[in-house]
Structure prediction request, 817 residues.
Amino acid sequence: MPAEPDTRTAETAEAAPETAPPAPEAARERPPRERGFLRRLISRIATEADELDDADLQAAIPAQGATPIAQCQDREAVCILGTLRTVTFQPRAGVPAVQAELWDGTGAVTVVWLGRRRIAGIDPGRAVKVRGRITALGGQRVIYNPIYELRPPATD
Amino acid sequence: MPSVPSLMGMTKRVLVGRPMRSELLGEATLPKKIALPVFASDALSSVAYATEEILLVLSAGGLAMFHYTWYLAAGVALLMLVVVASYRQNVHAYPSGGGDYEVATTNLGPKAGLTVASALMVDYTLTVAVSTAAGVANLASAVPALNGHLVLICVVIIAVITLMNLRGVRESGTAFAIPTYCFIAAVAIMIIWGFAQIVTGHHLVSESAHYTIKDTTNYTGLALGFLLLRAFASGCTALTGVEAISNGVPAFKAPKSKNAATTLALLGAIAVSMFAGVTALALASHVHTAEEASQLVGLPSGATPRTVIAQVARSVFGGSSPLFYLLQFFTALILVLAANTAFNGFPVLASILSRDGYMPRQLRNRGDRLSYSNGILLLSAMAILLVIAFQASPTRLIQLYIIGVFVSFVCSQSGMIRHWNRLLRTETDPAARGRMKRSRVINSVGAGFTGVVLVIVLATKFMKGAWIVVVAMPIIWLVMRAIQRHYQSVAVELEPPENLRPFKPHSNHAIVLVSKLHLPTLRALGYAKATRPDSIQAVTVEIDPDEVQALRDQWDAHDIPVPLTVIASPYRDITRPVVEFVKRMRTENPDDIVTVYLPEYVLGHWWEQLLHNQSALRLKGRLLYQRGVVVASVPYQLRSAASQQAVHHPPAASAPLQETR
Prediction:
């Protein structure tokens, strides 16, 4: 099972993509899976719903042969599995583009499809798998025009 | 459109009166003839019950004890003169109105000052409760039908006094002057008339003269001493209210100190002679009374004994004389008005304490009529609670009384000794030195006397209920300390450091929250663009995909030149996804500012609020805790709000989000 960093470490990793292995304290905050039933139950109750979702997202990554965003190296061809947290539509006056924020439980990456104003199925909350080359642009990690695959929700 | 005041506003106008301009503040000072009744009604009114309190305590030892009354009354009168003389020194040395609190803080340190403050606050509250309860008890002596409703009458009276004080010091002063002078006159007539009768050979016989008292215990030796001390401590209630003048010096006409000192002397003379006169007549007419009505043998069963002053008046004037009823009426009135002294003292003290950071800031605000309205309301609320808790029983309330006053007497008098010592260290003029030394002697005597009395009062009243005060004072002390610590730490945190780097955000990112495309949203978008942010985007939360689709269609139809970001919300929540989104925008650069524009429409009526949910308010509350995030409300006034504009301003309902949840 790969390491599962949480939101905060993902963001630091984003600022400095070289530090691929997540910080050790991340292990403390993620929902423990190997411990006793009662403890697991308590920690599941005490955790926010979206944090549990993050854990589920992370768990789905290895089976699909994807890379956790936190471990992606700059200018590398990657495959990422996650959900679209936000989708931004450009105004009619500007450059046509659909921009979305993809979150896989370890980090976020911006995906941009140029030349189109709408893509059927690219909606907030949707689970997708994308392939493309990841780059850092002004502190943000971006994949332009990735190949995408709409998937059934990854959270169940 | 002319603005129409609301119902609330009009009620307030009728009760409190037209607001006064701040410039009028200096004019709200009192000439001596008004100041005497305003500040002295408390001290004078205690004449009405001080004698009675002494007799009540002595009655426990039987009739034989009553011959000690003279010595005790003389002791109380002497103490009164000493305290008045000492306070005349205070008034000259500290004319700023801080009174005992200021004297103790300056000379003994802030902790002593705070002790005085908490003592005085307890005592002011008790003054209101005790005087009102005693006044109503006297009223019930004249009109026995009132006996069942004492608590209610007390509460109503306190409310009326509160209202008078909210109207302002000037008017309340005039309103209180007449009854006070009438009371003085009535008691004077009674004393003169009574003595004239004695001199001409008439025997004054009170209605209770033939009652005997069942003495429950036989007091000898130590127990006797203790009983006498307890009676003396009860008689000391006559001293309350003396400190009110020293707290009220700024309210006097110039020359303030001199006028205040003269008023104090007048107060001392009048109070002592009235007290002595009433006590003498009570003894001459053999007034017998007891703590428990059952102790009085001869009292018709079921009857409550009249108050001592009522019995004296009946024996002097006769039971059905109009003068008797007049005196009873004025006694009740002045007892009620004595509460007013506290209303003059407490708010000023509270405002000074809040200036020094020991009490909430609101207590410093002057209301419409330039009175410290918040302090007045606080005092009245606490007094009403006390009256209800103690069932308006003056005998039970009086046990809590006067400890606070004596704590503050002792602190301020010992403070004054230090004050003179300090001045004497540097003063070289022999004439001035002589004056200071004389003052120091007066204050030393005052400190000594009041210190002894404080010990007596504490020792004799502790088990009778005074422990409540002894517990309450440290609690108030600690609370005030905590308030001060809080203000202090906030002030330290807000203080700009020496090497301050001027704060200028590196860039400003605008977010406009949108639920549907209506006028408020368009206004917010336009406003956000007009502030020329470095980036701008509209944000909506997807709860219902169809609504988002409709919004996107409208967006295109209106050709809005702003990108629209849709946030996923798997749990149909609005607040959390937006807050997380804003947080993510923030993490990139600590010097950036994110401005969140919330379109809101403003409703005219509170009941309209109920129809709109408050998610914008919730969101605003959450975003306040985010660093580097500014929330801007862009109001859109609905027609109902425009007509209500002048009246009140209800919180705006959430326009962007109200449809979604």
Q: What stands out?
A: The CA atoms of residues 72 and 78 of chain A lie 7 Å apart. The interface with chain B takes residues 11, 15, 49-50, 53, 83-94, 99, 108, 123-126, 139-140, 155 of chain A (CB under 8 Å).
